[in-house]
Amino acid sequence: MGEIIQIHLGNCGNQIGSSFYEYISDEHGLDPQGNYIGESFLQREKINVFFQPEIASSKYSARALLVDLDSSTLDSIRTSSQAKLFRPENIINMKNGANNVWPKGYYTDSWTIMKKIVDQMRKEVEICDNFRGFQVISSISAGTGGGILCKLLETINEEYKTIVSTVSIMSSQQNSENSLAAYNNILSIPTLQEKPDQCIMIDNDSLYSLCENVLFLENASFLDINHIVAGALGILTAPLRFLSPLSTDFQSMVMNLNPFEKLHFLSLSLAPLAAKLTPQFKILSPFEIFQQMNQPSNFLSNIDFKTEKTLAAGAFFRGHMGDREVELLCSRYSEKNAEIFAKGVRQGFLLGHSAVPPKGMKLAGSCLINNTCFRSYLKEMKVKYEKLSKKKSFMHWFTGEGMDELEFVEKAGTVDDLIGEYEKIIGN
Predict the structure, then answer these.
(1) pLDDT tens per residue, range 304-331
(2) Global pTM value
(3) Which of 67, 182, 318, 395 is the most exposed place for a label (fewest CB within 10 A)?
(4) What is the four-CA torsion angle of 245, 247, 251, 256, rounded to 10 degrees?
């Protein structure tokens, strides 16, 4: 068992973080304030992975830092029912926000806020018995989620020799209200390529498409969106949080799903899909769950198994099914769909299985796929960026924060190189 410290950045990262901890607190028998009210020994057996027990009490606090340059989202958490779940000193904010400008987060405000973040990270690591790594959640299309993220990843890389995984939300490339998202994406990607060990990429477009076309929600709210992401992360982390013969750890996920050092951008699925307030009426079989897990429509980002190649795959199950059944489902799928894997890579799944199902369900599952489909996102980002940079639209907002235009050229070149790396894999 090893502890994982989560760091939530910006409005998006903190909203998802709040939903995730609401989700797993309930599973571990904790009330919103962190008091243990559960009844099963399974709930506490590996609770220390994401929660720190308080001395001489049955209360737990989240191993998490909540960071934002704006105070609005964090103020709402401070006054919510979850307030006592997070230690007050781990909620760090300024008052002015980053205004969706990447260099304001990276250059201007990071010098003020990073010292507080680093101090609290150190304190969190020191109280761990077997610290395993960091998981950072943010929107790379935003000023805080992109700019502070990159500065934070550089700092972690310098000070800690540990595993770093990110969960990165990408804003819509077509209908984004944030017109600066294309700039922020281009500036964030090179650091995501270089510093963390793996990056789980989630697309806002895909999330809203799931709500509209699969869940038939006419007006999906952030509550619905965040619940879907929290559910997927809940399944993905279940083998870390509950004992099982097919449990897996943080390190094995990274080592097995990223055969190429630079190509560590992953896609995540969820089955069955359900909105927060929508009950599940149909009980699915293990085979049906596995089918849904591998359907492109169930992924939280666009994925295409026909034209793209899979470099590695992981399958994570929750619920009452035999471990042998899990292994057979995955091996048969790999045999029948060998063409989706790139040449020279291992054709199979990293397996994780927790016998503890999500609340209100019998079975659930999630696939974590390293697929070359991320190159299409890179190309979209590049096209959007070039349209803006050609006219120098909004460029003064970035140079006004101390950024040189040549940095755009350098970062865009790195994105081109990354696209080239994916093209080589496709060519082979």
Answers:
(1) 898 899 999 999 999 988 888 889 999 9
(2) 0.94
(3) 395
(4) 80
